[in-house]
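Sanity check. The docking grid for 3,4-dihydroxyphenylalanine depends on where the pocket ends up, so I'm generating a full predicted complex first rather than guessing from homology. Inputs follow.
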Amino acid sequence: MQQKIDEIKNNFFEEIKNIKELASLEEFRIKYLSKNGLVTKLFDEFRELSKEEKPKFGQVINKVKNEVQDAFNELKTILEADNKSFENYIDLTLPGREKVVGTKHILTQTLDEMKSIFIQLGFSVHEGPELESDYNNFEALNFPDDHPARDMQDTFFVNDKFLLRTHTSPVQVRLMNEQKPPIRAIMPGKVYRNEAVSMKSYCLFHQVEGLYVDEGVTFAELKGTIVAFLKQFFGNDIKYRFRPSFFPFTEPSAEVDIWWVPEGKEGRWMEIMGCGMVDPNVLENCGIDSEKYTGYAFGMGVERTAMRKYGIDDIRHFFDNDKRFLTQF
Ligand code: DAH
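Predicted complex below; grid placement will be based on this.
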């Protein structure tokens, strides 16, 4: 009997050393301490002992039982405490899950950059409504009644007095009616044209309008400002040219072209803005004394400028909302 007790006890303490988690502890408990466990069974055998042997082994078995029970309880407490921290356990071997972070649309990024350059040059930023009056969009800007730009083919008319603005120039009119010179502002925003959609044109696009009205503003200042902008936006080696042109609301007028070599194609000039000295009629229409003040204005196409900067070959990409395009920027 003694030998059996020693054997069970020794095995118990041998095996318990290797238990590292609650699941195996439970198996271990069943093996030794459950109703049919090896330690519990010793008591059954004890009952069968002779009267003389009973007192001797009773003590021994009880002592062993208490020792193993204590050791078991101790380990159980330790493993349960460990297991609590297991609940917060992060499995560092799991592959990570990618967090998808959105980015600003490339047009927003372009507009932000344009704004910050003009702000550095001393311009403030103003916005006007996209639903505009025929008066602000055309008449105040010196468009004759029969001007082709008023044609239904270019303009989305809402009724005979209102339309979706075809350019941001009407914001100049609003600003000059609201403020006295000196005025130096840019006016970014969306414009709409009823044109056939193609690689180069879309029914909706963005412009950044610019206006500077004060005493003695000259064409040379206009050129200086535009060139400063182009160099900051595209880099010092940007190739550009000013080309004489015509707009009803500026005199003289010019268009600005930049050199573009589309990938795999021949280089060509690309028009990105119109500009000129504000026509005295326009100043007078807005209540500004054209004898005292002069001004320059410009209007730049944002999509075209972004296309040149980022090598985008189709204006429709900006509006398709294709993630494969958008995530490149
Ligand atoms: N509004 C003209 C357009 O959409 C662009 C333009 C030309 C704006 C000359 C100006 C300007 O301010 O001075 O084509």
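Relevant for the grid: The pocket of 3,4-dihydroxyphenylalanine is lined by residues 167, 169, 209, 247, 250, 274-276, 297-299 (CB under 6 Å).
Also worth noting: The CA atoms of residues 18 and 24 lie 9 Å apart.
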